[in-house]
Amino acid sequence: MGLRREADDRAARLRYLRPVNLPRPRPLDVLIAAVCAAAMVVEAAVNPERAAGFDPLAIPLALLAAAPLAWRRSRPIGALLLCVPGLIAFLLLVGPAEAATATAMIALYTAAERGDRRRSILIAAIAAVFLGGLIWLLAAHEETAVKALRLLILLSPIGVGEIVRTRRELGEAEEDRREALEHEREEEARRRVAAERVRIARELHDSLGHALVAIDVRAGVARHLGDPESAATALAEIQAVSGEALGELRGTIDLLRESGEPAPTRPGQGLDGVPELIETLRAGGVEADARFDLGATELPRSLGLVAYRIVQESFTNILRHADAARATLEVRVVGRRLEIEVTDDGTMKVGATAAPGHGLRGMAERAEALGGSVEAGPAGGGWRVRAALPLDGGLPA
Questions:
Q1: Alpha-carbon distance 200 to 192, whole Å?
Q2: Max CA separation in the chain (angstroms)
Q3: What is the pLDDT of residues 248-267, one digit of tens each?
Q4: What's this model's pTM, rounded to 2 decimal places?
């Protein structure tokens, strides 16, 4: 126990002996300190009240009083305390000096502006006693009202610093409140979306699950019935139940589909549907080229569907958002990865934005579902979409 206490005491002594690393002063604060020191020296040189003329000792005293202002922002209390001895010595040597007064006011303002209300009150109380005595000593011939006015002027920077600090803190608190409200709104929106997804999933499960079970039961009955009339009745019931289920599914999907988005009229396609997309692009006035290098690779159906959707969305973006004259599509198999690259030479239309929209997010989500990725952005004066999809990420064909 004693050895441990001795080691702690040795470490504490080493901390006190360690040199203090002052932060690098700001150029503006260095300039303020230099101007204050120069003004004090000039005022000492032209002071008409000094019959003995200029005393060279005023130069180091002015530097001693003003130099701490270079660290007034990082060490406000230290700068204030270090200014005091130099200011007292300078005033005793030169007499009343406006430059020295300005230096003290800058130090007092910074100490209040960089602190808190308790510190400001404490500094004001100490400064009132100290500066009051100093004014009484150096300006004994002046009237009491003049002395009180001088003291009030010297203490005014403390009040100004307190006001500036309070306004800054109120602004920061308001900014924090706005950020908190924005974050709360985003969280609430995410909760509502999640709740809506759960509700839609529950509705789909209830409606389609019930319909599929009914279809399965009726299909099994129809399979084992030997009577054609009974089988036809079961098939008619299957048709009715499936039609009702499809209607409910279509209604639910319509709720999810964006306004103006057409409903699909045929099953999802694979890369064999890309030529039709190219013709659509050409019909829109964009010259399009496509190069396929798949070799003997047979793509899983889910992978082909995702690839088709990525190409479709890329071509749609070219027609909607880019004044392009030419577009190029490259689809190739590299190792165990399917790579898709769509480029164009267009520029973004007026009013369009480069921020990721629903289409880009949809492409990224489809690719991530298979373990792939999608990158989109400016390239070579135009726009490029590049997707990488693992061949083993899709379901078997």
A1: 12
A2: 135
A3: 666 666 665 554 555 554 55
A4: 0.44
Residue type, 48: P
**C-alpha dihedral over 235, 239, 244, 247, to 10 degrees?**
160
What amino acid is encoded at 212 in this protein?
A: L
Measured between alpha carbons, how far is 42 from 23 in angstroms, rounded to an integer?
A: 30
Residue ranges of domains in the chain: 19-172, 271-393
Phi, psi of 40 (to 5 degrees): -65, -40
- Summarize pLDDT for 99-144 with one digit per residue, the tens: 888 888 888 888 888 877 787 788 878 877 777 777 777 666 767 7
Is residue 293 pLDDT above 60, yes or no? yes
Task: Classify domain 271-393 by CATH number.
Answer: 3.30.565.10
Integer Cα distance of 88 and 126 in angstroms: 15
Structure tokens at 73: 């922002």
Letter string b/e over residues 184-195, b meaning 16 or more CB atoms within 10 A of that residue's CB: eeeeeeeeeeee
* CB-CB contact of 291 with 331 (8 Å): yes
Question: What pLDDT, in 10s, does the model give residues 47-57?
Answer: 656 545 677 88
One-letter identity of residue 374: V
Cβ atoms within 10 Å of 337's Cβ, excluding its own: 16
Three-state DSSP at 274 gives helix
